[in-house]
Amino acid sequence: MAKLQVAIDLLSTEAALALAAQVAPYVDIIELGTPLIKQEGLQVVTAMKAAHPDKLVFADMKTADTGALEAEMAFKAGADLVTVMGTVDDATVKGAVEAGKKYGKKVVVDTIGVKNRVQRAKEVIALGASFVELHAGLDEQALPGYSVQTLINEGKEAGVAFSIAGGVNIHTIKGVVEAGAEVAVAGGAIYGAENPAEAAKALKEAMTA
């Protein structure tokens, strides 16, 4: 069964905790966005795990170097999953994976900026990543002609464990699940909604419909 991940791209611990409290009944993974972690530090990870010990807490570190160090910092703070950029040296991915083994936690590789996402997805899974986040960032999503269908097609082609982030909403989430994604990541579709709890509930129901 595919999991639903909420990406919280708010900028304060207080706002993040408030949103998480609303949507927690309907999501499996709570992601703390990179800007939030940069603004608040890793204490936001600790606070979220304390508030929701039954949920997987995903620290979107977007690590570009010192893979072992940054992954360990996040795992010690309470993260269950951390991200490393797919564009980095293999040694950085391996370092984070080693830290993951030490703490019994998982590393996800984020494909923002990767030119050949399918090829890199296969490579990083071989390096020990738990899954690959086929991810179009907010900047890429804003470009004319962008479609989440591109990521869906790449996930099918790669044939490895993957999640999809970037344009996942009530209209596209079923296609994400049908493509075999382990995780569907919804950000703006939840936190930008008038009623985030209702939006999260509807997404979760659409995944299993």
Question: Concise description?
Answer:
The chain has 209 residues and is an alpha/beta fold. It is built from 11 helices and 8 strands. Helix 6 (117-126) links the parallel strand 5 and strand 6.
Structural class by helix and strand composition? alpha/beta
Shape: globular
Q: Biggest sheet, in brief?
A: 8 strands, parallel, barrel
Cα distance, first to last residue?
A: 12 Å
Averaged pLDDT: 98
Number of strands: 8
Determine the fraction of residues in helical runs and give it as a percent range: 40-55%
Unreliable parts: none
- The main sheet orders its strands as 1-2-3-4-5-6-7-8
Task: From the alpha carbons, calculate the radius of gyration and give it in angstroms.
Answer: 16 Å
Describe this structure in words.
The chain has helices spanning 13-23, 34-40, 43-51, 67-77, 90-103, 117-126, 138-141, 149-158, 173-178, 188-191, 196-208, and strands spanning 3-8, 29-32, 56-63, 81-85, 106-110, 131-135, 162-165, 183-186. It is α/β, with parallel strands linked by helices and 209 residues long. An eight-stranded parallel β-barrel has the order 1-2-3-4-5-6-7-8, surrounded by eight helices. Helix 6 links the parallel strand 5 and strand 6. It is globular and about 40 Å long. The model has no long low-confidence stretch (mean pLDDT 98).
